[in-house]
């Protein structure tokens, strides 16, 4: 089958390889792919990968399903909902009530262990009305005394909020959602059903917001770099503070932010219609959402959407209501990352990103500025040297004396 590269900028520097039904840059390898989930596109709209498995919330059968390379391995009864994500401890988080597609002021979520045994049940009150089909990543451990942080909201209403779930007391501490003025997340606009907000412990003062048709005076809807960075202000509230640089980002779909070797990266959907392509980029923040030529400097690797044999269109059709979900976690080997992709109506797949083959420029300094790209890189006595402003660093960002 012919493969067509949809991202043309900055691909010459990395060799590409074709495997697992798609072309991808040489530092990406598909470990396995399963197409048996293709019939679930309208039933399971979100999935998350963990420890070599995929967890799909099937709102039609009202079950949380665990899938592996050879098919469905197990399932547990949940509810008629679509939201599924995980926390940093590896618990699978599912919304139980209200049922799909409605929203309600009181909601219940459950945490499951990797083997689908229940780890906890939590009631959320004073939630905003409206519908939100997807959950973003949850910081921390929801079953611990310290708890986990779930950022969430509702579409058609301009308010978002943060929930701290305390696993020791099975209680949820919620910051006000009712109005923009008293909300902890001060972002106005209209949010669709498919927006996601993620929280990460390694970004303690930030939230990452994605909404396909997010609209305010500060950004645009539709095409562009539209994964918003929200940062805490002096009052402790999260306010708009730039955009994560996402080369060739075309509207919105799934994303995740992760760390490897002390460096931060973002993986997100890309391609002419976001059908089944994704890109990994260094975490760099910019002021505007528009795509720009210099964004290519942040790109690390891409998996390209598959084309039909005659190159007339992509093999898989993107649908914003189902998304193109990606998440990442450390692999067994050092300097490597597992990337999980659920492309509804197509497949689940696990990839390995080998960062030993990529010079981690962001390890040097100034993580959130474009200055980090203006460096010299060369090999000296068998080790990579990164030189900036006359100072030499190794690949880990340590000064070489």
Describe this structure in words.
- The structure is a single chain.
- By secondary structure, this protein is an all-beta fold.
- It has two domains: 16-359, 6 Propeller (Neuraminidase); 360-401, no CATH class.
- It is built from no helices and 30 strands.
- The protein has a five-stranded antiparallel beta sheet with strand order 16-17-18-19-23, with no helix packed on it. Strands 3-27-26-25 form a four-stranded antiparallel beta sheet, with no helix packed on it. Strands 4-5-6-7 form a four-stranded antiparallel beta sheet, with no helix packed on it.
- The radius of gyration is 20 Å and the shape is globular.
- It starts with 15 loop residues before the first strand and ends in an 8-residue tail after the last strand.
- Mean pLDDT is 77; it is low at 1-20, 213-224 and 360-373.
SSE order and pairing:
Blueprint: E1 16-19, E2 22-25, E3 28-34, E4 47-50, E5 53-58, E6 63-68, E7 71-77, E8 84-86, E9 92-97, E10 107-112, E11 118-124, E12 139-140, E13 148-153, E14 160-166, E15 171-174, E16 196-200, E17 203-210, E18 227-232, E19 238-244, E20 255-260, E21 263-270, E22 277-282, E23 285-286, E24 299-303, E25 325-330, E26 336-343, E27 347-354, E28 376-380, E29 383-388, E30 391-393
Antiparallel strand pairs: 1-2, 3-27, 4-5, 5-6, 6-7, 8-9, 9-10, 10-11, 12-13, 13-14, 14-15, 16-17, 17-18, 18-19, 19-23, 20-21, 21-22, 22-24, 25-26, 26-27, 28-29, 29-30
